[in-house]
Specification:
Length: 412
C-alpha cells in the first residue's frame, strides 16, 4: 500500500534524524563528484561549515596525491555500482580543512533517482584503531627483540660451555616454548585490548550526542562503560607487570602478623562491589586467628580466586570461602558453582597464557592462576584444583608453616 502524506512526512523525519545524529560521517555525491549532502558528524570531522563544502568536489576531502587515483575509482564505480567497503586492506586518508590528514575506512552505497545515480559514503575515522595496531605491533616487536636477545645468549652459552647433545635439545625445546608464548601473547593481547578500546571509542562518540539535561542518564551509562573498560585494561597491564617482576626475581617477601579472620572479611567487603548480580560470598574460618604472612601477596591470591569464581559463575551464584589455620599448615579454599573445568584443561591451568576451552567468550589474560601459583610457591604453598564441568570448581591453597623461637608462624 502506498504511504499517506503523514506517513511519508514521518518517514522523512526519521531518516533526517538518522542522518543528522549518526555517530559517523555520511555524505552523498552525484555522478560528477559534487557533494550534495553531508551530515554534522562529517562536517565536524573535516572541519568545515556546510556552506563551505556543499556543492564542492569530493576531492576537497581527499589528499591531492590521491586525486587521480580517486577519479579513476569513481568512474569505474559508476559503471558497476555496488555496496563495498574500502580502507580495510589499503591505507585511505581524509583531508581536513586545516590540511591535516587522518586515516579512514569508507563504506559505499548507491541509489538512482530519475535516471541520476548517487553515491552514499559512510566515513569512519580509524585513528584509534591504527594506534591500537601500532601499540600491539610495539608489544610484538619488543617481545621479538627479547626472544632474539635470549636466543643470542643461549647460543653463546652453548658455545662457551660446549654443552652436550641432550642439553642442546632441552635448550631448543625452551626456545620453541618461547616462540609459542610469543604467539599466544600477541594473540591474547590483540583480542583483550580490542574489546575495551572499542567500547571506550563508541561510548565517547555517543556521549557527544547527549548534551542536554535529559541525556544525563545516558551519559552516565556510557561513562560507566568507559571506566569499566579502563579498569579491564589496567587489570591486564597489572598482570603483565606482576609476571615481569616474578621472572626478574624482583618479588620480595615482607612478613607481617595479622588476624586471618578479620583480614579475609575485609577483602570480601572490598571485592563485593565487583560481583555479578545477586552473587553471594559465604566465609568460615576455623582454628587459630593470627598468622605471619606476606599480606600483599596473600591478598592478591585470594582476590584473584574470588574474581575467577565470580567471573565463571552465573548470576545469583554462591561462592564459599573456607579457611583453616593450625600450627603446621594454613589452608584456604575458594569454591564456586560455575561452569567447571575439564580434566584436560586442569592439567594446564597454571601455565602462562593458558585459558580453558570453555571460556573463550569471557575476558581474561590466562595469567591469573599462573601468577598466584608462583606467589604461593614464594610463600611455601601450593595451589590445587578440583572441578567438574557444569558443577563448579574448588581451589585449595595450602601453606606449610614453621614456628620461630617465639612460637610465631613463619614461612620456610
Amino acid at each position: 500500500m502506498p504511504l499517506t502524506v503523514g506517513e511519508e512526512r514521518r518517514s522523512s523525519n526519521h531518516f533526517k534524524v538518522l542522518f543528522d545524529f549518526a555517530p559517523m560521517g555520511i555524505l552523498m555525491t552525484n555522478s560528477l563528484g559534487d557533494i550534495i549532502a553531508i551530515n554534522p558528524f562529517a562536517l565536524k570531522e573535516f572541519g568545515y561549515k556546510e556552506d563551505e563544502i556543499i556543492h564542492q568536489k569530493i576531492e576537497a576531502l581527499i589528499p591531492s596525491r590521491l586525486h587521480s587515483q580517486h577519479n579513476n575509482y569513481r568512474e569505474l564505480y559508476f559503471k558497476d555500482p555496488h555496496i563495498r567497503t574500502i580502507g580495510i586492506t589499503e591505507d585511505l586518508c581524509g583531508l581536513r580543512k586545516d590540511g591535516s590528514e587522518f586515516p579512514v575506512e569508507i563504506s559505499l552505497g548507491y541509489y538512482a533517482d530519475k535516471g541520476e545515480k548517487y553515491i552514499i559514503a559512510f566515513i569512519c575515522n580509524i585513528s584509534e584503531r591504527k594506534k591500537s595496531r601500532r601499540d600491539i605491533k610495539g608489544l610484538h616487536d619488543n617481545l621479538e627483540a627479547t626472544v632474539t636477545h635470549r636466543t643470542e645468549l643461549l647460543t653463546n652459552t652453548m658455545r662457551e660451555l660446549n654443552i652436550n647433545k641432550e642439553e642442546l635439545s632441552r635448550a631448543l625445546e625452551k626456545e620453541k616454548e618461547l616462540n609459542e608464548l610469543k604467539s599466544r601473547f600477541v594473540s591474547m593481547a590483540s583480542h583483550e585490548f580490542r574489546t575495551p578500546l572499542s567500547t571506550v571509542l563508541s561510548s565517547a562518540y555517543l556521549i557527544r550526542q547527549y548534551d542536554t539535561a535529559e541525556g544525563q542518564i545516558a551519559r552516565e551509562k556510557h561513562l560507566f562503560r568507559i571506566v569499566s573498560s579502563v579498569d579491564m585494561l589496567t587489570e591486564i597491564l597489572n598482570d603483565f607487570l606482576s609476571l615481569g617482576k616474578m621472572e626478574e626475581g624482583k618479588i620480595q617477601i615482607k612478613l607481617s602478623e595479622f588476624n586471618i579472620n578479620e583480614f579475609i572479611t575485609s577483602i570480601i567487603k572490598e571485592i563485593k562491589g565487583n560481583l555479578k548480580l545477586h552473587q553471594q560470598i559465604v566465609f568460615h574460618h576455623q582454628g587459630e586467628d593470627n598468622m605471619m604472612m606476606d599480606a600483599s601477596l596473600f591478598k592478591h591470591i585470594l582476590m584473584n580466586l574470588i574474581s575467577n569464581a565470580s567471573k565463571f559463575s552465573p548470576d545469583s551464584g554462591l561462592i564459599e570461602i573456607n579457611s583453616h589455620l593450625d600450627q603446621a599448615t594454613y589452608v584456604l579454599s575458594v569454591k564456586d558453582s560455575g561452569m567447571g573445568i575439564s580434566r584436560e584443561d586442569q592439567k594446564h591451568l597454571m601455565e602462562r597464557f593458558y585459558r580453558g576451552s570453555n571460556v573463550a567468550h569471557i575476558h581474561g589474560t590466562g595469567l591469573g592462576l599462573h601468577i598466584i601459583s608462583k606467589y604461593a610457591e614464594l610463600l611455601n604453598g601450593v595451589v590445587t584444583c578440583t572441578s567438574e564441568l557444569e558443577k563448579g570448581s574448588e581451589f585449595l591453597v595450602t601453606f606449610k608453616l614453621n614456628k620461630n623461637e617465639k612460637g610465631e608462624d613463619i614461612i620456610d
